[in-house]
Structures are given as structure tokens and as C-alpha cells.
Automatic annotation (TrEMBL):
Gene Ontology MF terms in the entry: nicotianamine synthase activity
Gene3D superfamilies attached to this UniProt entry: Vaccinia Virus protein VP39
GO biological process: nicotianamine biosynthetic process
EC code(s) of this entry: 2.5.1.43
Name of the molecule in the record: Nicotianamine synthase
PANTHER family linked to this entry: NICOTIANAMINE SYNTHASE 3
UniProt entry tagged with the keyword Isomerase: no
Family of the protein in this entry: Belongs to the nicotianamine synthase (NAS)-like family.
Amino acid sequence: MVCLENPLVLQICDLYEKISSLESLKPSKDVDMLFTQLVATCKPPNPIDVTTLCVRIQEIRTNLIKLCGEAEGYLESHFSSILGSFDNPLDHLSLFPYYDNYLNLSQLEYNILSKHCPNLPKKVAFVGSGPLPLSSIVLASFHLTSTYFHNYDIDPSANSMASKLVSSDPDLSKRMKFHTADIMDVKEELKEFDAVFLAALVGMDKEEKIRVIDHLAKHMAPGTTLMVRSAHGARAFLYPIVDPCDLTGFEVLSIFHPTDDVINSVVIARKSPTLQPMHYPQQPLVSPMKLPPNNFLEIQAFNPLNLGNQLAIEKHLT
């Protein structure tokens, strides 16, 4: 069982102790430094399987994901306030330190969506949009330029801040709506969407994540698309993992594991006609050395030899 003898786990545990001892997770020099170190530690492709960790490290991982979520919320609120002070907030999005990551993640998600959905969605729900809804903004601005986005967040202040960011833009202010609601209370409306995006930190533990996915499976229209953000390898210390077996009621199409600066994995699935559990064969992983050079790898566990914009894809289930 992988535990404290692993140098990576030791390093992450050390950072966890320092982060958990902070008086506040709001942006500051110490907070920024520690989370930057944490991301840098977890980002390189690593074959660690977090499901093999001992109970103590599993608890640390669970707590660390919650701390990351809290810090991310503070960071987004901080920069949403800054951007909201401009007459045209969308002209200054690059002030957010991770804006480029959102550009890359949205490009990845659009590429995946385009591949599996020839008819791009006309109406999208984004669950867990937060005070700085960069994913929706980037997708709506550059990729899904005629799509209507309905953003759901449980926090009214987050929605107020987010709405302010797009209010001065004549196009996005018409195509982006913000709803204050617990997604578990949203039912009939879910049938109206062609695609639903589920943010990584909606459901920060396995049980809660599965409850949300089951709710979506119950109320989304058959044949519609679900895009779920997950994590892989050491990156699973930052975000929860969504496995194919968690997606009962959906047909999993592909799971994409980036190996560049995009931290989140992306799972694309299609709502099944029934809620019967889906069973997926385990396909053998392909050695990166046997794959032809390509900017878009189709079947691969990791490609540590090519960390640019290539994608590592654990399973391709179509």
C-alpha cells in the first residue's frame, strides 16, 4: 500500500501541514506561495494511484481538496471584485493569474465536445460557476458563440459578482444567465439543456459527487451531453476523481487526461435512454513509445516525453 514511503506523498503532506496551519486562505503572500508549490508538486504526470493510499493519507487528501476549494473560492472572489471595478471587465480578464489555464481548458473541452457532438449545444447549463465564471465566459466568447449559458451556483453573492462581469457586454449579457440554486433542487429545467458542464468542486467528496451525477442522470434529457471535470495521478490531491463507474445512467464516451498546465481531466458522457448501470471493458494501456507523433493522442495513459499541448487519455471508450 502506497503511503509515507513515497517521496511525493511526503512532500504533499508537508505542504498540507503548512496550508492547514494558515490563519486564513484568502489571497496573501504565504497563501499564494504554498498553493503555487502544491500545484507545482502535483502537476507533473505521475502514475500514483490515490486509491491505494493508506487511510491517513486518504483523510489528508480529502481535507486538502476542501482547502483547495476554499482557497480557490477566495481567489476568484478577490479577482472578480477587481475586474468588476472596470467599466469593461471582460477587457481585463488576463489580470487573473490562471486565465491562460482557463483558455487551454476551454479549448480542450470545446475540442472534445466537437468531436463527440457534431451538433454543438444551443443551450448549456454550467453547474458551479462561482464568482468568476471564466469557463462559461471563454466558451461563450470564443467557441460556442451562439450558445446560451445558464450558470448555476448556490451562493447569491457569487452570482451577483459574476453577473456584473458580463453586464457591460451586449452579447454575453444576453446569452449568459445566472441562477442561485442548489442543483439538487433543479429538476424539470435540466431537460431543456443540450449539455451540462459539472465544475470540479461541485461535490468535493465521492459520495456528494455521485449524488449530483445521479440527480443529473435522473433529470437530464436522454441523449444529451455531460461534461465532468475530474483529476488523475497526483493531481487527484487537488480535485476529486470521477470514475466511469460513478456515471450510472450515462454512456461514457472518453476520458481525457492532459499532461500540460491544464490540471483537470475531462470526462464526456451521454445520457442513456434508461438509468441502467453501464459496464465498460477495461482496455489495455498503450505505451507512449509505440504511438506515432501527434498533437492529439487518442489512447494513452501518460506521455511524460511530450508535455506540451498533447493530451493523455486513459481510456477511449467509443
